[in-house]
Design a protein that fits this description.
It is a single chain. The chain is globular, with a radius of gyration of 31 Å. Helix 13 packs antiparallel against helix 14. By secondary structure, the chain is of the alpha+beta class. It is 35% helix and 25% strand. The two termini are 24 Å apart.
Length: 563
């Protein structure tokens, strides 16, 4: 591991601290009595306090120093005075330990008294301090010049997501997103509990990847010698509990789908699913809009939220539009009563790419997605989906071609999906078998397996039930104005980090010259490097072997360029 100059200096300080008999990583409890918020809200001149946190800045002026301490709730100014800390003749704790051996980023504990500076800032006068943890790597702190211009901000997304621990320290606003995320979960949980519904847990490792159509992560159970699948959905297990006699169950579940990654999809994500007996999708629409109004207020103090250029209002009630009416409104085509061939022809006429694996439901879904979905900015329920699109949903009571289903659209994205649940075991078996046929034709969104145990559960009888799923990550994106799912996950999935290659100094010299022009004639590059024939041959081979540079033969001669 190659250490930077600053890292080497910090390790040297670490050794000096230990030589002084100071443990840079003490095991003792530190008796913190206040937070920065406590101090500011209950400020009293001369009051004794004990706080702890990171040293984030300091301005040393001889025998005195102003600094900033950051704890989990914010920052506060602290004042180090040599004679207050070192009351006797020995001034080494201030002169040596504080001034020379502490660094920005170190955790320290402070015992002190409160006072107000001449400019009116609430400050802690340090009476004693304790090193609690020595930071060996400097924080990526931004710098501000005399004109107020900020430089070197830690804002590269890949670095921020990969080093979320540093991101949270130096970008305090990031923490606010996750505080709001927790508020959302707490508010939703309270809403369900107050309604009398029961929070449950269902298996993450499942013998059949059911309840949704998605590519699962596959693992193997050694003792049972069977394949298992990471949960893609928890729907079928929650319905089993309704069969078992619970009137209302819900779960915040971690789901896993071995599919693409983009700004709105992560392979590991959080969904909430709730199932309530003796209800239908009309009741669930009312329940959903009341729930989201409650959650928006709990998170932001208002029903309104800004997302990009839009202001969204989660105040109930929400507009309700059938899928057929939506498609007819935006395309002029009425899907009602049309055959698969007619719908396929209409999709082709709209310029939608179709293939033979697409059944009627998939074709309608593509038409809606291409032409309608993006038009719904304010919360809108899209209702009454074609039966082919909803294999777990009850047939519509007024139209056997449709199902009693809704999706809630916000800013052109789905954030909730709900059904009057199918509880006819014979109908359910036929739907599963139809999905199996679609999967055999190549439809990658069709369910390719049948959960026979779930069918057996339905045969014992499930009462009329309505169920709803909400993508929690996407919902918090809307409530915190974040366009990327990575911003609302503490640790989003990342590509493996590329380790810097350890190359020789001579190879580095050649690479530095190349980086200035990207491509040079080989003889010129060799001349500029100043290396002997032996060192040149060794170094250029090192660069090409590690795919850092390549040599290309052209009509004009041999050229070297950066890869």
């Amino acid at each position: 591991m190659q250490l930077s100059e600053q890292e080497l200096v910090r390790r040297d300080k670490l050794a000096k601290l230990r030589a002084l008999g100071i443990n840079p990583y003490p095991a003792d409890l530190y008796p913190v009595k206040q937070t920065t918020t406590d101090i500011k809200s209950d400020f009293e001149e001369g009051k004794s306090v004990v706080i702890a946190g990171r040293l984030m800045s300091r301005r040393i002026q001889g025998s005195a120093s102003f600094a900033e301490l950051q704890d989990s709730e914010g920052r506060i100014q602290v004042y180090f005075n040599r004679d207050e800390i070192c009351t006797g003749d020995d001034k080494s704790k201030y002169n040596n330990v504080y001034k020379k051996l502490l660094d920005i980023g170190d955790f320290i504990g402070i015992e002190g008294e409160l006072f107000t500076t001449k400019v009116g800032e609430k400050t802690v006068m340090v009476k004693d301090f304790t090193l609690l943890s020595k930071a060996l790597k400097p924080l990526p702190l931004p710098k501000t010049d005399a004109d107020g211009n900020t430089y070197d901000e830690f804002n590269d997304p890949e670095l921020r997501y990969r080093q979320r621990y540093a991101d949270l320290v130096v970008n305090p606003h990031v923490k606010d997103v996750f505080v709001k995320r927790t508020k959302l979960f707490n508010a939703m949980r309270q809403f369900f509990n107050d309604a009398g519904y029961f929070e449950v847990e269902t298996p993450v490792l499942q013998p059949i990847a059911g309840g949704a159509a998605a590519r699962p992560f596959v693992t193997h159970h050694n003792s049972l010698d069977i394949p298992l699948y990471m949960r893609i959905a928890n729907e079928l297990y929650l319905k089993r509990l309704i069969v078992g006699g619970f009137d209302g169950v819900y779960e915040f579940s971690k789901n896993f789908r071995n599919e693409g990654m983009d700004r709105t999809h992560n392979p590991e994500f959080t969904a909430m699913e709730i199932y309530v007996a003796y209800k239908d999708y009309n009741w669930m629409m009312d329940f959903c809009e009341q729930l989201l109004e409650h959650c928006a207020i709990a998170v932001n103090g208002t029903t309104k939220a800004t997302f990009g250029e839009h202001e969204i209002d989660f105040k109930a009630p929400y507009q309700r539009v059938t899928m057929a009416d939506s498609i007819k409104h935006f395309t002029g085509f009425d899907i009602t009563g049309k055959s698969e061939a007619e719908i396929r022809k209409a999709a082709e006429d709209m310029g939608i790419e179709v293939d033979n694996t697409m059944g009627k439901g998939k074709l309608i879904d593509e038409i809606f997605g291409e032409n309608c979905e993006g038009n719904y900015i304010q919360p809108t329920f899209i209702t009454d989906y074609p039966k082919e699109m909803s294999p777990l949903c009850k047939e519509h009571r007024d139209n056997p071609e449709l199902t009693e289903r809704f999706e809630l659209m916000v800013c052109g994205k789905e954030i909730a999906n709900a059904y009057s649940e199918l509880n006819d075991p014979i109908d359910q078996r036929e739907r599963f078998e139809h999905q199996l046929e679609l999967a055999k034709k190549g439809d990658d969104e069709a369910t390719a397996t049948i959960d026979y145990d779930f069918l057996r559960a339905l045969e014992y009888g499930m009462p009329p039930t309505s169920g709803m799923g909400i993508g929690m990550d996407r919902l918090i994106m809307f409530l915190t104005n974040n366009q990327s799912i990575q911003e609302v996950l503490f640790f989003p999935q990342m590509k493996p980090e590329k380790k810097p290659l350890a190359i020789s100094d001579d190879a580095k010299t050649i690479l530095e010259i190349l980086n200035k022009s990207e491509k040079l004639e080989l003889v010129d590059l060799k001349s500029q490097s100043g290396l002997s024939n032996k060192k040149w041959d060794k170094s250029i081979k090192e660069l090409t072997k590690n795919s850092l540079a390549k040599v290309e033969k052209t009509e004009k001669g041999l050229f070297v360029e950066v890869v």
